[in-house]
Amino acid sequence: MNTEHSFTLIDDSNGSTYKLPMLSGTVGPDVLDIQTLYKQTGMFAYDPGFTSTASCTSTITYIDGEAGVLLYRGYPIEQLAEQCTFLEVCYLLLNGELPPKAELEKFVDKITHHTLLHDQLTDFFNGFRRDAHPMAIMVGVVGALSAFYHDALDISSKEHRDLCAIRILAKIPTIVAMSHKYTVGLPFMYPQNKLTYVENFLHMMLGNPCEEYIPNPVLVRALDRILILHADHEQNASTSTVRLAGSSGANPYACLTSGIACLWGAAHGGANEAVLNMLLKIGDVSNIDHYIKKAKDKNDPFRLMGFGHRVYKNYDPRAKLMRATCHEVLTELDLHDDPIFKLALELERIALEDDYFIEKKLYPNVDFYSGIVLKALGIPSNMFTAMFAMGRSVGWIAHWDEMISDPKQKIGRPRQLYAGATRRDVPSITDRGDVSA
Ligand code: CMC
Nearest residue CA, atom 13 of ligand 1? Predict the structure, then answer.
């Protein structure tokens, strides 16, 4: 990292000047190093939502939101989505390089042989109500992994961290599929080692013990691509949550659980489910104008789900790839005339031509299309966020590992601008007045 130049801050009230170093990465905006800001000035930096704050140094993923660029370890997402499988991308994110053939085979073999859950862990599901949201189950069961696999929880050991990564990647699809089977009252399906990662997931998720599940290669490729496109997205909310949880030394399963909880929110990973719910609410092409008006009304909390992005302000490169996959899947399944898919495509067309969305640079994001593809694959909408978690788990674990290995790593501890009551004395209970008045 280059630290050639500095940045001078001037306090307008008294003319005092403070020098702060500027850091340059390999690509992307320079960064003002404010680590000494408090020491020098007695002030904190204020940045709600971290819109201007780099929280760490990372070598995993690069995004240029203005140019619509997304690179994993330097490789463009378009090339990875076209030329690689999800497990190749996992290897890349975890190890920094694409695997040679023999390495990939070893990696795939390890994952294939860690997909089963401890049998007692399957009983854990029975503690949940059948109508529990699958993400509630995911939060519980992934957290519980630390109670079953504590033979390798020394986070200072690279060997243990690598084994945790393999276990997480291998077991997450099993847990996602079981979360679904449990809520619909169907028997759990055991993994099948002869199948690929995605085929096996579809077998566990959509198959049943009465007949053999025959995977459709077009749908397998579509899901593989969804996983690749969701695998990492630099310091997004859930990844930052994983890093923050991990910064205290918490175990990786606990950290992953915090990421899953964060992902659940509708502004993040909950968006793909929210897209489907929104489409069902809109109901018919004739109602689109009404909902577009609502989305534009400042006094109405309604937003078009699946539109807009914190960092992509021109287009989301993942959405472009997902849009193509969406059309492949709808064609393969002959679903272009299905009312909900027709509605989605018409909403996309109208919003893309509307001045409000054009001016605010609100384009369909990856979740707009992934929701449609997942529905076409037969995945119920309450499982969409769990599917996102399945893809993102590798990103979470790669960032967690990078953070633990960083010698500069410290426990995360943001500061605040306090705006509450100043010091006051506690009154006796009879002198407290009526707080509800
Ligand atoms: N529909 C209508 N108006 C919108 C929308 C939308 N989907 N998104 C943003 N706006 C408006 C917003 O009201 C604001 O208007 P104004 O400038 O007049 O106050 C302006 O656009 C900027 O919005 P913002 O909320 O300040 O932008 P942000 O960068 O903080 O939010 C976002 C990004 C993704 C949270 C937001 O666009 C949103 O809520 N989208 C819908 C939810 C969604 O699809 N989320 C998935 C994101 S992609 C998955 C992932 O990577 O996690």
Answer: 298
